[in-house]
Structure prediction request, 137 residues.
Amino acid sequence: MALGPVDVYIIGFPGNQFTGRIAPVVLDLIEKGTIRIIDILLVIKDEAGQVTALEMADLSESAGPSFMEIGIAQPGALGQDDADEISDSLENNSSALLIAFENLWAAKLTEGLQAANAYVIDHVRIPAEVAESVITA
Prediction:
């Protein structure tokens, strides 16, 4: 089976406030076969600017029981280099959740391209907010 494209989302949490609303959505996408989680990394910057990176194995049940149900295909795929790269852009007392996931829905397209001896020259993702503003304009 062909590998689908992989995206890495960097999701910000001002004030280090986590509501727990993301995990059920991610679990639903996994259960429907839309995505497969490659890795998850949480980067936390405290009020003094000290940065801590936590892998899924480092997180406790306090992260939320739904969050702990997410299976990781390649633990360690995201690491300290990734945390260092985004930590400068994080404000003090904020966090970023990095989620790398394979787009399983696109694996069939990848297989079709390979069968046709074709390849993707470029791929552009338009953020939802931008698409919405264009559509509603």
